[in-house]
Specification:
This protein is α+β, with helices and mostly antiparallel strands. It has 27 helices and 12 strands.
């Protein structure tokens, strides 16, 4: 479970991450130069199922821990990081006499209040009683709008989202954005589809909402009626919302308009009151992600009674706060979100849950201590060198591209030459001096942190973009490409084994970290990233002919992934996952071409019975070693823009002639696409 309040506004940026929904281990990999032979399943031919061949042994020997819904490379590495972070936080929490305002005082006090389970149990739902009373006191729709603004200031995601990010058509400036929202379920289609899983989820959700209302002393009959009211309103919102796939189009979701224009399309909502109560009353323009949603919002707002809206707001208050309240709330949330939706068998221990909250609130304060433990300066230098080789390889890929015309190539090369690169940790750390943290209560700290983060974000309206800012903390096991800043970012946490191993041979490092880097570079030229120019602005820099050729190749990749059955009747959505699939395919091509320049590849000497090329692909596959619960897999097939781990290995490799040669994959073998279906974009 996560503390929802912390994650609603803290990182309101658009970027394409390697692995958004979050770890490989299995022993001392350095003894095998970066790859443990015990991870193999030699009973399976690599030409038949390379994923099972490469990591079947690992999967058999690494069952999912009961408090996890997925267990793989990212989770294992994150667990290792968590132990380091736990030591840092426990040390800070043990001392009550740190200088006020210091990093140790803030992270220590926050962690200490979160770990004070006795106080939290005693308080029950007392922390949210003042907010419940505010909702009960609403007398008219004007007061309703005012309270929605207050909710947004404290991070409660009622009705829609309002945040500040880079203006995607004027990337030097920060601009306000409005986006659809207001739902309790993770995808709009769960409200509108009539397949058996969606129906089951709706039924369980209504019961979950009712159970939560009962915990604030609402009688059974009223709780069940109120839960249905919540479902009715959220269903109305879902019906005017974009699908997740529709929201992948950065052009259609960029609609800059004046506040007067906004009032015209959404005149049933008092925008003057909303913006004034949020403290941005002088707003002139706003970028609207989904105009039809805000038109529908006006109608929905007026077609439901004030009493029904009070019920809706109470639910979103409870839902947002649940994980910070007493155990009945925490357990109920886990039963629905953890057990039912994701298949978890046991709740994670409190220290892990509070650790995530501290990370989400003050990630860079913790990160300053973390990088001293795990990321020396020489590690940053080595990573920078690899990035340079991958950028050069991408340049060669563009130059040698057979389907792209010269004018588009020129623009692509220019964009590549302006890529920003961030490695390890920020050069300038975030300033938390205005954030007050004390030992007066966990919920109070969460609320103060959310308000501080919200105000910090709103203060950026109309200001120049600060390109030193990071979208992830150094202790995050992930990486990303940010199209509006045209930069690739690799936090310190991912620059560790098995992704990057100083004891490993080049083959394994290029297959693992090299592909990660190539993946993020390729995002600058995937179906979304290619719509941004070198300065990070949405701009069409493609010729009509080159655009059509790109679309034809992308369509083949969509069709390939649509053909993958992940579990039961649930299939991969090739269109939803297209950007990440392009990233994986491009990353493999770019990294392998860079690897061919190394001495190891040129010498061609085998290690542990595998050639350099074979070790490269084994290094790649080990990154995606994973076991996942059926419920979690079904959920991710609906909401995740990444393909399941198995298909992140099988899908791109089925298109690579270098892979066919390395493992003697012949025409007709399952690991080789037919010649007319082979895809190469980058």
């Amino acid at each position: 479970m996560k503390h929802k309040r912390l994650f609603f506004y803290l990182v309101p940026v658009t970027f394409f991450a390697l692995f958004v929904l979050t770890g490989f281990s299995g022993g001392d990999k350095s003894k095998n130069n970066g790859f443990d032979l015990n991870n193999l399943d030699r009973s399976v031919s690599p030409a038949k199922d390379f994923y099972q061949f490469a990591v079947g042994g690992w999967r058999a020997n690494n069952p999912i821990p009961e408090d996890q819904v997925r267990w793989g490379t990212f989770e294992v590495l994150q667990e290792q990081n968590n132990q380091i972070l736990k030591t840092i936080l426990e040390k800070a929490a043990a001392n009550k006499n740190w200088p006020k305002g210091s990093a140790d005082q803030k992270i220590g006090d926050f962690f200490a209040t979160g770990m004070d389970s006795a106080r939290i149990e005693k308080d029950g739902y007392k922390p949210i009683i003042p907010d419940l009373k505010k909702i009960d006191a609403i007398q008219n729709r004007s007061e309703l709008v005012k309270l929605i603004a207050e909710d947004h200031l404290t991070g409660i995601p009622a009705l829609f989202r309002f945040y500040v990010s880079v203006d995607a058509k004027k990337s030097s400036m920060m601009a306000p954005y409005l986006s659809q929202g207001g739902l309790g379920l993770p995808d709009v289609e769960y409200y509108t589809k009539n397949d058996s899983r969606s129906k089951e989820i709706r039924d369980k959700y209504v019961q979950h909402v009712a159970n939560m209302f009962k915990l604030i002393n609402v009688d059974d009959a009223t709780a069940e009626k109120d839960a249905q009211t919540v479902m009715n309103i959220e269903t109305q919102l879902a019906k005017v919302s974009n699908t997740r796939l529709e929201n992948r189009d950065p052009i259609k979701t960029y609609n800059k308009m004046t506040v007067d224009n906004l009032k015209d399309i959404s005149n049933g909502f008092d925008w003057n009151s909303y913006f004034n109560n949020l403290g941005v009353g002088n707003l002139e323009v706003v970028i609207v992600g989904q105009p039809k949603f805000f038109t529908g919002l006006s109608q929905i707002l007026n077609s439901n009674s004030l009493d029904d809206w009070k019920i809706y707001l109470k639910w979103h208050l409870i839902n947002d706060a649940a994980s910070a309240l007493s155990s009945p709330f925490v357990n109920e949330e886990f039963d629905f979100s953890g057990k039912f939706m994701n298949g978890a068998k046991a709740m994670q221990p409190r220290w892990k849950r509070i650790l995530r909250a501290v990370n989400g609130t003050m990630g860079e304060l913790v990160g300053q201590v973390y990088v001293k433990e795990v990321f020396p300066p020489e590690a940053k230098e080595r990573a920078e060198k690899i990035v340079k080789t991958l950028l050069a390889s991408m340049g060669e890929s563009i130059k040698n591209n057979q389907w792209m015309g010269d004018s588009t190539k020129e623009q692509a090369l220019h964009k590549l030459s302006t890529f920003g690169v961030k490695i390890g940790y920020p050069d300038k750390w975030k300033d938390y001096s205005e954030l007050e943290i004390a030992r007066d209560g966990y919920y109070k700290n969460l609320e103060r942190a959310s308000i501080w983060a919200r105000k910090d974000n709103l203060a950026k309206i109309g200001k120049p973009v600060d390109k030193t800012e990071w979208g992830m903390s150094p202790q995050t096991v992930n990486a990303y490409y940010n199209p509006t800043r045209n930069e690739i970012v690799f936090p310190a946490a991912i620059l560790q084994p098995p992704f990057f191993n100083q004891n490993a041979d080049d083959a394994v490092n290029y297959g693992a970290m090299g592909v990660v880097i190539g993946h993020e570079i390729s995002h600058g030229f995937d179906d979304q990233g290619r719509k941004y120019d070198a300065d990070g602005n949405i701009k069409d820099w493609w010729t009509k002919d080159d655009n059509e050729k790109f679309q034809a190749r992308a369509k083949k990749l969509i069709d390939e992934f649509n053909g993958f059955a992940a579990i039961d009747s649930f299939r991969v959505n090739g269109a939803l996952t297209l950007g990440e699939n392009i990233g994986d395919l491009g990353g493999l091509n770019v990294s392998f071409n860079a690897f061919k320049n190394t001495d190891e590849y040129k010498k061609g000497e085998s290690i542990d019975g595998f050639t350099p090329a074979q070790r490269f692909f084994l290094g790649y596959a080990q990154v995606w070693a994973e076991n996942i619960r059926p419920e979690a897999l079904k959920l991710r097939l609906k909401i995740d823009v990444h393909s399941p781990a198995r298909f992140r290995v099988l899908g791109p490799l089925m298109n690579l002639p270098e892979f066919f040669q390395a493992f003697d994959v012949k025409p007709g073998d399952p690991m080789r696409n037919q010649d007319d279906k082979l895809v190469k974009i980058w």
